[in-house]
Records
---
Amino acid sequence: MKNSVIVLLVFLIAFTFGSCNNSKTSEQKENEAISTKASLTANVNNSVKDASHADNVKYISKEVEVKGDVEFPFTFTVDALKKMNVVTIEDFVVVCQSGSEVKENKSSKGVLLKDILEKAKIIQTNHKDRNFYIVARATDNYMATFSWAEIFNNPTGENVYIIFEENGIPIKNQGDMILICKNDIKTGPRHVTWLKSIEIKRVN
Ligand SMILES: Nc1nc2c(c(=O)[nH]1)N[C@H]1C(S)=C(S)[C@@H](COP(=O)(O)O)O[C@H]1N2
Ligand SMILES: [Mo]
């Protein structure tokens, strides 16, 4: 009986010290992981607001600002778009990255992003100066990014539009203007509702 108590005590002491060291390191690791995760989440939450309700009228933007490395920065409204080369886009389906179908437009009316960028004229110092990125930003800070080559040297350039009308009706709750990329595999990510600016930036 006495022996077994001593053996038990020895085991208990050994176990306590052994696991103490282990648990300290794993606890530290866990804490590090948690704080990294927390700061990542904080960054994401700071940049994109949780505006998942499509009918959130407070995010509606009446104009879009074109700015950055361009010769002629300008701001446009739906009325200004209507004076440009308006095209009709047939059968556009919005598919979330998750795979679920969110919206289906039989027809949409809009203007090519390329036409807008040509109007603003990207400042290029020579023909090799073509490493630019274009950020389409919404009032809730949701963003989609394009590259110069995608727009000016790739079929995608003929598939990126700023639309103002869906199925014959002006865009209201998600508007006034939405940027879309018709040839994306999942069209949800680069479907920017409440569009407020187009920023052109040179890669440094
Ligand atoms: N401004 C803005 N545009 C956005 C989003 C957003 O949160 N804000 N969500 C995107 C996502 S994840 C998808 S799938 C599509 C379709 O979402 P909808 O339900 O807003 O139409 O819009 C995209 N456009
Ligand atoms: Mo999505």
---
Amino acid sequence: MLYVSTRGRAPKLAFDEAMLAGLARDGGLYVPETWPVLSGADIAALAGLGYEETAFRVMWPFLGGVFTEAEFRDAIARAYAGFGHVARCPLVQIGANDWLLELHHGPTLAFKDVALQLVARLFDLALERRGARVTIVGATSGDTGSAAIEAFRGSARADVFILYPHGRISEVQRRQMTTPAEANVHAIAVEGDFDACQDLVKAMFAHESFRDRVGLAAINSINWARVLAQTVYYVTAAVSLGAPHRRVAFSVPTGNFGDIFAGHVARRIGLPVERLVIATNRNDILHRTLATGEHRRAGVRPTISPSMDIEVSSNFERLLFELCDNDGARTAALMEALRAQGGFSLDGTALARLRAGFDSSRADEDETRAAIRDTLAATGLLVCPHTAVGLHAARLRRGDRATPMVTLATAHPAKFPDAVEAACGLRPALPARLAHIMQAPERVAVLPADRDAIEAFILENRS
Ligand SMILES: *Cc1c(COP(=O)(O)O)cnc(C)c1O
């Protein structure tokens, strides 16, 4: 099992190499060269198994034997032991054949934990084997950074530095990054906005001597290992609802297209998926692409679902590669047009394939708030604004009522208490297992948006 770049000009890599590399050398994303298949009997045999055993059976064929079975099972066990629910990603019924898949029972209350908790263990395994260390640097608008710090705290092989915009993330998000005491994880509050943080990270990766000196690595959402880990909960949810004998539909709050691409992977390996609904907020480039065939940037406007305020959905490139018949040169040309001209149009065949595989919907701010209120009134449940965007799409794009519709609950409402309270009048409480972060001492470096200053801090503070 090898991985190829979506731009066709980078060496094929094994699973662990693709995971450590993140981005391919030609600027592309790694995808499996061939797809393993779970037969109907394989899927039927998952009924009644725990999350970890299903995770092992779904992911194992993608690893190509780079870890031993025992190593991989142990990594999975340790990744999910810290989740606050024994089912790890439980389903909750919210209506007639309507379901929520709760992905927020991990340590930082967002679905990013499902992937990063496992990826951190796999990084440690791969680095230990190589006798290597890395310095992970990332920019965050909230959820990814806290999940990365939580996943890598105490790692013997990685130092982690997360840049966030000073004063512009919620208190819970900040405390999740500033309260872990382990010496290998660091929160950096940058005097600037999220774009400034991202530009600084890009500048450090482009600074070759620095990159090589500290062994710079990334764990952003284009990492194949993250996508793969997210495939598992599509399978556990569908099996609970009757797969392989019954098809299941999913509505997925979408930003970078990583989570919904994992649903596509589940379908490619044999899961009977009736539809995948791309749920966007008013930053709706993907919804417009499905409607018009034009993939064109229009500027990002902030919303109450900030983790979806994105217009370059980086994982969309993985799907584009398939829509282009796995033609790396064509995919590269489209991505270059997106960079240089702000967009591209899909040809008739590619657009027809996109529409055959996906459906889409958009929620503006009022519709998002209404979905929070309606869900509370109907079920007594509080949902986060991202989840609300997904629920809005699930209602609009519902097909046959006999097909279960599963909306992915991507974060716990307590991560976005102000937006939830403004929408419905109730303030979600932080789960008891996180209460300690509101008292624990914080450790954070406030630094100017200046590459030299950040690099100096990293050189001084890495192990
Ligand atoms: C990251 C995130 C999303 C978007 O997921 P993608 O994989 O980037 O499409 C949606 N909701 C929440 C809460 C997130 O943290």
---
Amino acid sequence: MENIDWKNLPFGYYPTDYNVRCYFRNGKWGELEVSSSEYISIHMAATALHYGQEAFEGMKAYRGKDGKVRLFRWEDNAKRMRMSASGIMMEKVPEELFFAAIDKAVRLNARFIPPYGTGASLYIRPLLFGSGAQVGVKPAKEYMFVVFVTPVGPYFKEGFNPVAVELVHDYDRAAPQGTGHIKVGGNYAASLRPADRAHKDGYSSVLFLDAREKKFIDEAGPANFFGIKDGKYITPKSCTILPSITNKSLEMIAEDIGLKVERRPVPLEELETFEETGACGTAAIISPIKKIVDRETKKEYHYGDIAGPYSTKLYVTLRGIQEGEIEDKHGWTTVLEGI
Ligand SMILES: *Cc1c(COP(=O)(O)O)cnc(C)c1O
């Protein structure tokens, strides 16, 4: 086991021993290759660099109280990466190859899997990009699939403490009928400027509105949004939202604990009616929101300085399932045997 200060690990890049790579060339995927280099060498005319042919995934391996290492709903990440690939005309990574790569990357770096109870986990970052040269705007003929892992602490240094979020009208992360529903780097490039502005103003993230009418809540930068009121878990439905696997899981847990689930357009005015709100994604599971400040109207929505009872229950349950402490009745986890 690595000698790391696990409890104070940031959510950042920490070097590990190996990464795995696979190339799609001449119409087929090659063998998985293991590398100990943190660098990749690619053609300067690669489509990833010019035309944004790049997609990624974010998932985690968790060390449970029972010592076992678990993945959470990896098949959904594999499927989403195929959707992302298809959305920007990239070669799809077959499910078996996706699993073989993450399995290998986790095993080879087993000494970096944070111990149970530290709040840290092993973040897994699969990425796929057009590595073949093109100058005209066309999909590449060659692709590279890479998986690296890095131990991470909680995404928000506040931990499971409510954060302040800035609602913006003057930026969109994705266009209607664009690429908001797939996990591609381009969406993130578009979100960097408003996110940086929000951070400088003391907010932990940005909440975007629907790009077409600016009337409905979309999502919170790299996380989906949900609100709770009157025994209901409500999350926006929009073609520009990335389908979060965490959100999908929380919806099921919400039903399990007796909440009614609504996935529908959420008008801006509804913000004042919620009892609890939060942002959800793999990185933090749930970041409860204490206040949302509308940058344009200066209107503020307050949800309390401590996490609400439903958000807490949802968080504790999902985390318990991921760490093998709560019965996984939906069959979401995969134990990686022998690590
Ligand atoms: C990855 C991502 C999420 C969260 O998805 P999870 O599968 O829950 O990790 C939410 N929004 C965006 C834009 C994302 O890229």
---
Amino acid sequence: MTRSYYLVPFFLLLAFYSEAASSPIPANIGFIKSSCNATAYPDLCISSLSLYATTIQNSPHQMAVMALEVSLNRTKLAQTFMHLLTKFKGLTAKQQEAIADCKDEVEDSLDRVNRSSIEMKSLGQAGGQEFIWHMSNVETWISAALTDDTTCMDGFSDLATEGKIKESVRAQITSVAHYTSNALALINSFAAMQKH
Ligand SMILES: *[C@@H]1O[C@H](CO)[C@@H](O)[C@H](O)[C@H]1NC(C)=O
Ligand SMILES: *[C@@H]1O[C@H](CO)[C@@H](O)[C@H](O)[C@H]1NC(C)=O
Ligand SMILES: *[C@@H]1O[C@H](CO)[C@@H](O)[C@H](O)[C@H]1NC(C)=O
């Protein structure tokens, strides 16, 4: 019995592993490529956003909006993953504790990315002080979402949590953090352009 409990979730873990859909890249993505240059993970940025080239066109605002949506969707997957892990049998008390804490962090992060996504979408027409206010909200929330990811992994610093579970959480959280870091870079680029 115990064995099948372990096997089924691990198939699910594997299903979530892949970073981004490797779809064919449309020809005209020059704007996306040059914008992604400002991010820490440009390949991930290009592969995840070139799917939305027709929406993005040459708009730094749409670029940031879509990057946040991609980050939101990826964070939702991580939330599902953490939820599944809490159902796992045969975990030590330390592992259970680290998983429960990390699930809370991922949920906080999801909430912050969601709020940022909504705020960013409504930002199109705002100007002056109002724009700066909304932008600083988004920048604060996304930075906090990245901190949540780090805090999640801190919970696994105890030696007693070493193993496959920790590695699978790390893979999830690292992937989420890469998408979110890219979104933050694109938000910052957009904000910097608007201030001129
Ligand atoms: C990316 O930046 C590097 C140096 O900062 C530059 O040489 C390269 O041409 C840029 N690539 C694109 C696609 O803008
Ligand atoms: C995010 O997920 C929603 C719902 O599954 C989907 O409709 C949307 O296309 C996704 N957006 C991106 C940018 O991946
Ligand atoms: C995002 O926020 C909206 C408005 O508060 C809410 O309706 C929606 O369920 C939230 N989505 C997620 C993924 O948390």
